[in-house]
Amino acid sequence: MKNTLLGLSCIAVVALSSCGKDKTSVQNTTVDEQEVITQFVNVVGNPNYADIQVKATALNTAIVAFLAAPTDANLTTARVAWKNARQPWEQAEGYLFGPVEDNYYDPTMDSWPLNRTDVDALIGSSDAITLTSVDALDGFSKGFHGIEYIIFGPGGTRKAADITARQKDYLKYTSESLLNTTTTLRDSWLVKPADYANEIINAGKGSTAFKTRKDLFVTIATQMAAICEEVGTGKMAEPFTERDSTKDESSYSHNTTTDFINNIQGVLNVYTATYNGAKGTTSLSALVASKNAALDTKIKTQIQTALSAMALITPTFEKAIYDNRDKISNSQTALATLQATLEGDLITFIQTNIKD
Amino acid sequence: MKKLSVIGALVLLVLLLAKCQKAAQFPADKYDERLSGGDATVFDITSHSFGNMFPALSGYDAEVHGLGDAAFSKIFVTAPAPINPGLGTIFNNNSCISCHHNDGIGLPTAGESNSSLLVRISIPGTDEHGGPLAAPGYGLQLQDKAVFGKTPECKVNITYTEVVYNFPDGESYALRTPAYTLSNLYTALSAGYMLSPRLAPPMYGLGLLEAIPESTIVAMADPNDSNGDGIKGHANYVWDVATQSRKLGRFGWKANTASLLTQVAAAYNQDIGITNKIFPVENSFGQSQYDGLKDDPELADSTLNAVRFYAATLAVPARRDVTDATNKRGELLFKQGKCESCHRQTLTTGINVAFKSVSNQVIHPYTDMLVHDMGPGLADNRPDFLAGGQEWRTAPLWGLGLFEKVNYPGYYLHDGRARSITEAIMWHGGEAESSKVFFSTLSKVDRDAMLSFLKSL
């Protein structure tokens, strides 16, 4: 990972701090750091992880309904439910730290690519397919993309009548398994003894994960930058440079662009303490604005620029690779700019201004 | 007269130069105990602190590092497939990152998708290069996973027996002794086989360790303990497949691999089942799991080289709180306990005009790169080239304090049996016995100071 800027900015911070107090800084309003943290947890983290579980429940309900009455209409409902379930999950990737990382929920739910050869072989075999056997599969043979493969099919053209009995068994238990993982993930944030939300709220006051508040804010900013890098130079780059749409993450559902936009929406959520229409009383953005209004504007503008650039990737990412390429490269540029600002300016700001 | 003044000037010059020479005995310009990796140090304390590129890289080098980074996290799937085919057919995990989580040390479990522990196997005797002798039907490494329709070689079972001990001052600690057994063997296994569990090691600073001159490492060896300090470190010389020659071993828990290229190529082949130019034959060749496909080598040379470069250019996290009084006290105790006899603080890498980033760097890896007898408690009793059954390479301690951050909750030692730095210290034996005793007889305050120092690394 490229952290040249981070390194340089740290040196800059050290250099600056040795020059004494910055006399030009003007404090407009005081923003309580603790309140910023609490709002992040209460308005973004907790509702987001709860939402993932709610949408996975809805997906499972839609799949159960489809299995009971396998019509094209019910299949369409399941597909919509799948996309709805992707949304909160992809947004939560804007702050990929804590249990989701430590307990490997991410690879369990969202490994990519799907091991299609193995999934097809399993379905074609006479091995029992049960919840236990699906739970025991490696991440790359189940999860979101396992479900996507069955309900959308290659090219996204599968009809209800084409889905075989064995595919239905696989679908049923893969969906159940995913739902169970989202429940565990939610509980790891919200329920004692794991109670990761509490670990965050107590940053700098006895939290084992974050000895200081600075630790927490640096982690948040680092993860914001990391998802920009993952989308811009990771997920977009390979299919784009190789002009190969089979290398897209959600190519069966053509949901790739939406996934990307939701990832960066997650960055905006964290920065402005917003989720699903709810808005916190204060936020990291307000904290930055109170001491450096220009930087706050810069970050917000660059997030919007990236979101707008990605919205122009039409009709699907899979097609845009071939005939709308400048829209993809513009998005990559916008993401790289945002990433540099987060790794450079924002982390420098945190190192400079957050003392405890 | 003129001659005299010239001579006088020359004498003066010599004196001045001599004076400069004297000054050079003080810490050199580049010496800074925070900069664990010299110029290749990064200031990052987050869970991603092991995954940073050398700060000085740019342009082409940065591009190749990025390609290596992407390849490192690529998940392989069963062939045939449009993306990343070639997994297995038998393997330990499906990507580099699946074991080296966050470029760090992994989870000490086997056979799960997030497991980072693998088990080496051999039978008594040595091969034509003096290395371990492959177990018929199993090779030198157990692959405990397989693609659908193929049978894993075995299942590795790990059980722990926990015993609680007390420090002389009454504080307690627990050590869990692992036992490794095999079940579900796919075919008969010769009697007398030897197992060695190995946890995925962290990835940062490897390019710097590769750049330490062989002469520096060998100069620290004292196999016959001629200085009488009880420390008998020696180098491991191993067969390097990439260059087809005998070389100083540097990597792996027993220093059984000479170069990063061989290390990376062997991991692709043995751990993931991906053939490459250095190891073009499937790990299951000659076994019932062999795929018989004519798709070897499965990995592009450019990808192998990029991943090698990635591994060589991950920066070392800087030390924290070096001036903290407790840490200073801990550092003093670390020296008094003679921990530094093996965990050497400062080494200088060799001159390398072709790879400036690792050239002539003052680094603080806290290792001598030698293998030492660590006593029967840690022994795997499986010799690996010149490293005996009780011998292990001195683990570098740089970055140690970030293990619990990067790979929560943090595991230590070659098989992850230690769950804290305290446990890791208390597992030391053999040549390190007296250092361990030194630590255990310290007062609680001093023990904590030493741990605080170690956590600042």
TrEMBL record, chain A:
Keywords: Signal. Residues 47-340 form the Imelysin-like domain. Its main location: other. It comes from the Bacteria. CDD domains: Imelysin-like_IrpA (cd14658). The keyword Signal applies. It is found in: Cell envelope. Pfam families: Peptidase_M75 (PF09375). This is Uncharacterized iron-regulated protein. The lineage of its organism: Bacteria, Pseudomonadati, Bacteroidota, Sphingobacteriia, Sphingobacteriales.
From TrEMBL, chain B:
Residues 1-23 form the signal peptide. Keywords: Heme, Iron, Metal-binding, Signal. The keyword Signal applies. The keyword Lipid biosynthesis does not apply. Residues 325-457 form the Cytochrome c domain. It holds the Pfam family DHOR. GO terms for molecular function: cytochrome-c peroxidase activity; electron transfer activity; heme binding; metal ion binding. This is CxxC motif-containing protein, DUF1111 family. PANTHER family: CYTOCHROME C DOMAIN-CONTAINING PROTEIN, CYTOCHROME C PEROXIDASE-RELATED.
